[in-house]
Design a protein that fits this description.
about 250 residues, alpha/beta, ten-stranded mixed beta sheet, about 25% helix
C-alpha cells in the first residue's frame, strides 16, 4: 500500500485533504489547530490516519486537542508524542489514549523519571503493542538532581509487566540513569537484558529486539542494540557517547 505523506508545512485547509492521509507529522501548535479545523469539516481526515506524530517545537501538547485527535482516529496504529519544552503528564495522556477505539501497535512515548508504574499504565492503555519507544524527558519544574529510582529497578515487576504485552517485539529505552555497573560492559548489559526478558525462568513470548541508551546526557553515555537469536541474547552493536539526533526503532 502506498503511503501518502501530509507535510503540514503549507497552509492547511479542508481541500488539502481530499485524499485521505495515512501518515501525519505535526510540528507546531498552529499546525495542530489547523489540522483539527480541517478535520472538523471533513471527518474522514482523522479516521483515515494510521500513523500520527505530534512533535511540537515550542510548546506542550494540549490535552484537550490530543483527545480530539485520538477520539476520531479509528485506524490509528502508530502514535508518537513529544515536544522540546515539557510533556503531557503520562497519566493524562494514557487516559486520553484509552478513550480511542484504535488498536495502537506502535507507541513512541516520552516519560519523566517519577513514572514508577510506567509499564503498568502503558499495558492498560495499549495492550496490543508490537513496538514501544520510551524516551525519558524530565518535566520543566523537576529538580536537577533526580532520584536514581526508576520503574525498572524492580526487575521482577518490570519483566512481569513486559510479559503483559504479549505481542511486543521491539523495545527501545532512553534514560539518564546508569543501567549497569560498568557502562558498555557486554556481560553487565547481558545480565540486564536477561533480567528484563527471562525473569523467574519465564521468557517473554515475543520480545526479540532491545535498544538501550543509558547515561544519556552524560559523558558516559552508551547506546546498545540487542537481538534474540537461536534462543540467546546477543549484542549486535554498541556506541560510546553517540552523537545521534534520532532515537527509536
Amino acid at each position: 500500500m502506498k503511503v501518502q505523506v501530509c507535510s503540514l508545512r503549507s497552509r492547511l485547509s479542508s481541500q488539502a485533504y481530499d485524499n485521505l492521509q495515512q501518515l501525519v507529522f505535526i510540528p507546531t501548535i498552529t499546525k495542530l489547530d489547523s489540522f483539527l479545523a480541517a478535520a472538523k469539516h471533513k471527518k474522514a481526515i482523522l479516521s483515515g490516519v494510521e500513523s500520527l506524530h505530534i512533535i511540537l517545537e515550542q510548546s506542550g501538547v494540549p490535552l484537550t486537542k490530543l483527545r480530539q485527535c485520538l477520539a476520531r482516529s479509528k485506524r490509528l496504529t502508530d502514535l508518537e508524542l513529544g515536544q522540546h519544552d515539557g510533556i503531557v503528564p503520562l497519566v493524562d495522556f494514557l487516559a486520553a489514549l484509552s478513550t480511542t477505539s484504535a488498536a495502537i501497535t506502535v507507541l513512541h512515548l516520552p516519560f519523566d523519571p517519577t513514572h514508577h508504574d510506567l509499564l503498568r499504565r502503558v499495558v492498560s492503555a495499549t495492550p496490543a503493542l508490537v513496538a514501544l519507544v520510551l524516551k525519558e524527558t524530565p518535566l520543566q519544574n523537576m529538580p536537577r538532581r533526580v532520584s536514581n529510582r526508576r520503574a525498572w529497578n524492580d526487575v521482577i515487576q518490570w519483566a512481569r509487566d513486559l510479559r503483559r504485552l504479549p505481542c511486543l517485539n521491539s523495545l527501545a529505552l532512553q534514560t539518564s540513569a546508569s543501567l549497569v555497573p560498568v557502562p558498555g560492559n557486554v556481560n553487565d548489559e547481558r545480565q540486564l537484558v536477561q533480567g528484563w526478558t527471562s525473569s523467574m525462568n519465564i521468557h517473554h513470548p515475543s520480545l526479540r529486539h532491545l535498544t538501550i541508551w543509558y547515561n544519556f546526557g552524560t559523558a558516559h553515555s552508551v547506546l546498545s542494540y540487542w537481538d534474540w537469536e537461536d534462543r540467546v541474547w546477543g549484542r549486535t552493536g554498541s556506541y560510546d557517547n553517540p552523537n545521534f539526533d534520532f532515537f527509536g526503532l
